Amino acid sequence: MRIIFWSDFNCPNSYIGLHRLKQAVDELDLDVEWQMKPFELYPTLFSTPTGSIITQIMIKYGLTPEMAEERIIETEKITLTDGIEINYKDIQLVSSRNAHRLVKYIQNKYPEVALDVILKIYEANFVENKIIADHNVLAEITKQLDLDNKEIIDFLKSDSYDFEVQIDEEDALVMGVESIPLYFLNISGEQLIVPGAFEKEDFKIAIEDMINGEIESKSFI
Fold this sequence. Notes:
- The protein has 221 residues and is of the alpha/beta class.
- The protein has nine helices and five strands; from the N terminus they run βαβαααααααββαβ.
- Strands 2-1-3-4-5 form a five-stranded mixed sheet, sandwiched between helices.
- α1 packs across α9.
């Protein structure tokens, strides 16, 4: 099975959705090839924190401070039911470009640990509130997976894969992708396009239907 998904490390729904989908896949005991594609929610951010998440949500979605704070609180509550506990309100909101570059590098050179890297970056951002644009933070994540620290630091100091990230994001716009997460599930010649962080059981049902040949190539869009 192959799963291609557009998401961003600053998107809590992307973290929730990936967590649920991975749980569904694990419970079905499937061998999956994962591929993440970038879709930056805040493409103009810098590598240092530039303000609270409340302010950014207010600007991006045209909400009042009270509405933005309520959205954050509701998101934090949702994750508790999924077995993860995020601290969204204290996130150090920075550019996710370096994290996306790193993921593309890892997916190409060390695909066997790519999903672990992705999940650890989400955890560093939403649970530990680390600055995920920081080269040392990202290198420490890969070091936990026994990758060479100097190799990763040298890569991050370069501009490698910046162009590839940009191309992926432009492709998403051409495809009409307007929100994330977005999942392309492919198995036995069938493809299912799923937008949003569906519940784990809904993911499982859809995958089982694909495996059993009970679902034609379709989309939930």
